[in-house]
Structures are given as C-alpha cells and as structure tokens.
Amino acid sequence: MENWRVADYLVQGCAELGVEHIFGVDGANIEDIYDAAARPRSGVRGVVAKHEFAATAMAHGYARATGGLGVVVATSGGGAMNLVAGLAESFTSQVPVLALVGQPARELEGLGAFQDTSGRAGSIDAVQLFTAVSRYCARVDQVRDLPRQFAAAVEAAFAGGPAVLLLPKDIQRAAIDSRPVRLPPFTPMDPDADDLAAVATALGCARERGKVLVIAGDQVARDNAHHGLRELVTDLHALVAVTPDAKDVYGPRDRGYLGVAGMMGHPDVIEAARSAALCLLVGTRFPATARIALGETPLASIGSLPPYAPGIHATSADLAATLPAIAALMRETGIRTPTLSASTPPASPTAATRLRPPPATGPGLRYREVMTALSELLPTGSAVFADAGNTGAAAVHYLDLPADGRFGLALGMGGMGYSFGAAIGAAFADPRPTYVLAGDGSFFMHGMEIHTAVEHDLPVTFIVLNNNAHAMCVIRDRLYCRNHDDRNRFHPAFLAEGLAAMFPTLPCYPVRTLGELRDALTMPGGNGPRFVSIDCDPDEVPPFAPFLD
User: Fold this and answer.
1) Predicted confidence band of residue 163 (pLDDT cuts 50, 70, 90)
2) What stretch of H or E contains 313?
3) Which of 57, 453, 501, 533 is 20 to 30 A removed from 417 (C-alpha atoms)?
4) How far apart are CA 406 and CA 304, in angstroms?
5) Dist CA 202 CA 312 (whole Å)
C-alpha cells in the first residue's frame, strides 16, 4: 500500500478484471497510468500504439478475442479527440471497452490550460463529447468518488459498449487508501418470459407452415453462443445466413448454410427470404449492410437490442443461455420440430451462389482468385480482420474461414484502418495466427501500426491489396458522379519494398502472381509478423450489390 496512487488503483482494478494489456499512446497527462502498469507485479502490460484510433481498435479486438474488457488510455487534447471514432465503433457494435483519458490538473481548468477540455471558460467539454459515444462517462473530480465511478464504468461497459473516465493529472497522482474492491461478474438480465414465449410460438407456427430462415449476427460470437445457435438450427431444420461481420458464427461446413446476407452477400439468401415462413434474427439489429428484402415474410428477433425492422423481439444480453432456453421452451410447449439424422451431410463448402461482377481487364490479381487462394491457405483456427472498401467486400463474399476461424469487420463507425489495430489487439490476447486484409487506402491511414506488431513480435500477417487508389471511390465516381476525375487514383507505391527497407526484421513479399502469394504465405519465417502486398486492378468492380444493378 506504500505510495498507492489513483493510477495504481485503476491498473490493479483492470488486472483483477482479467485485463493483461492496455493500449494507448503515452503522454504527459496519461503517463502515470503507464507508470502504474510498469510497477513490478502489476499484472498489466502497457502497450504503446502509434495512434489513439488504432489503440481503441486494439482494445476492441482484445475484448472480442478474450470475451472480456478492453482498455484504452489516452492523454489530453488531440490524443483524447483521436479516440472518438474508435469508441463510436465499440458503441455501435456493443463491445466492452474502458477508456481512461488524461486531463490537465484541476487547478488549471478554465484558466487557459494547455489542452483544457473541462468545459470551463469556453473550453471544449469532454464529458459532453464522450457521453455521445459511450454508455457511461464521468469526470473524476474527487478521489473518494473513484471506486464508485470505476465500478459504474465497468458495469456499463460489460452491458455493451464503451465507458469513459476523465482523469485530471493531479487525481491520477493523488494517494488513495484502498485497493480496488473485487467487482462481481456482470450478470445480464434474464429475457422477459412473455417475449421468449412469443418468439418460440412464432417459430413453432412458422415451422408447421414451411422453412425458417435464421440470420445470425456478431453477438453470437461475442456471447460465445455458437453451440446454442447450431442446436436451435438443428431443431428447426432451418436455413442459415450470417451478417457480413459474423462469418465466424456459422459457415459452409454447417448444415443449411446459405451465405452472407446484405449488399455484399449471396443471392441464395434473398431467394430463401422470399419463400420462408419466418425470418429469425439472432444477435443482429439487421442494419443496412445486412438488409435483404423480406417481402411478406414475418420477422422475429433475439438479441441485445431490437432490430431496425419491425417484428417480434426478445431482449437477450446472453445468447449462450437464451438460445437453449428457446429450444427448451419449444419442446416444453409441445411444438414439434423435425430432427436430422447423424448421416445427414453438411452443406457443400461451395454451395453459396456468388455474385457475378463484370470481368476485370486491368493489371494484377483478381479479388476472387486472391480470396480463393487464402481460403485454401489459412491455417486452422486463424483469425481474420478485414477492412472497409473493396477488399472488405471481397473478403465477405468470397473468403471461406478455416475451421475454428474467427472474423472481424468494422461496419459501425470504425471505418478504414480499423483492421490493423484490431488484429494487433486480438493477437496480444490470443496467439493464434492472425491476418489483416486491407486495401492500400486503409494502409495509408493506419498501416504504420505494423510497427507495434514488429516491436512485440506478434503473429500477424498483414495482407494489403494494393490498387494504388481508393478503389471503391473510383467505382462510385464512375457510376454515380457527373464530373469524375482521377482524385482517387494514386501514383504507384511499392509497399512491400518500402516496408522491407523501413523494418529490416520484417519479412515483406511483393505479390503479382498466385504462385508468389502461395510462397509468401507458406514461406518459413518464424511466428512473428509478415507483410504481403498484392497488386490489384483499381477498376475491378467488387462483389457489392449496389454496383451491379
């Protein structure tokens, strides 16, 4: 307890929650948190990222990989402002992230302090700013309030989304006379029994009339509810689609799999929706990126938040418990469901019908052949994080994950560059082979986080499809704009060669043929990071339905 400060209290509190890594960018008004993490036997390692947005993505990926809490730290001013987009992604995707944000000392607030965000004397109000992108936000103005505020922040984060504590410099360094109280595990509220019964009844009635189509979302992965989903699907003899960010919850090796729903998805899902007796959403709000036309097909939903489309809904913050409860309720109420014999074969891995973009004639490899090769080469259990844009659309549509694979995609507010930080955060939590699939536009935004992977020798393979353009914008200009120019096309950049010169220990592979791609991914090179740059055509149309109408 000697020299026990608020900063030590916070780090110890994170450690007792199972957090082993915190992510951020060091600076004067957050250095005490890093100092506390460096304390012998703190149990927490402070990781220095290159940018706060990427640090938030690391905390996001870490939380997804552990099923626990991710922690990001940032100094005041621009460092704090850089958190907003990353926290907004965690808010939208309901991933538990705790942000510890440094502030100038209290005695300087409202007096023109450097990076003052107290809201006094016309300064920016950080509480107001972060409240809009968090489930809980509080400024710690008194040491005695810290235990209550820390507990409230953790509870809010585990309920689904980011929480923010604003920490003046003098508060971080102040003495505190107690260690953190061990917080009880978060216990989600039980779903309403009447709502569950309504969903079970709707499923039973629909099963008597015809097929049920299940569309599963990423909450299934967050709640580790894969087994419950498979049991329910088997009981219903249902057809299954997944949202673009949930490719790891059900796949082509599973019975009844149709593909991905939405604008990057597969036509078979649309046909199934039109003829289904009921569409059941599991762990998704059915956002625009996953939306398909249901026509007259009724909708039911199970998940932490109600869907954007109208229908019957049962709220559940723990699908691992709720999905078996639904199946049991159907059995208890005498709803008959067909059973599959053990000899019933799973759907073929190539069963999903692909979209057919126009043929590309430009230089480089094609999206489909790259993703097909990756599907064959990814080791069992790999984690894949894809980025926004043409590369993400191609990964969603064409890539088949390996057995026990994981998939991450930011479709909320994360935007381009999210995959670099998220993959690094996940790799800190879980040493499985991890892959980033991104375009060169995303690389130029946040690709220098590769430096963090190099510094910590993480098992991350960075695969950048380089078409020397913001290629999705190139396609949009051509299709939708009256006066398009070449603003989204770039001069050639030789990414692999450049990074090889920057990081002598980083294996870097320029790829222009499928043979070179296979060599790059199978070349012995230890368990550390590697970088692969694949030449692609900026004018190739990706498998993105709005571009194909």
Assistant:
1) very high
2) strand 312-315
3) 501
4) 21
5) 8
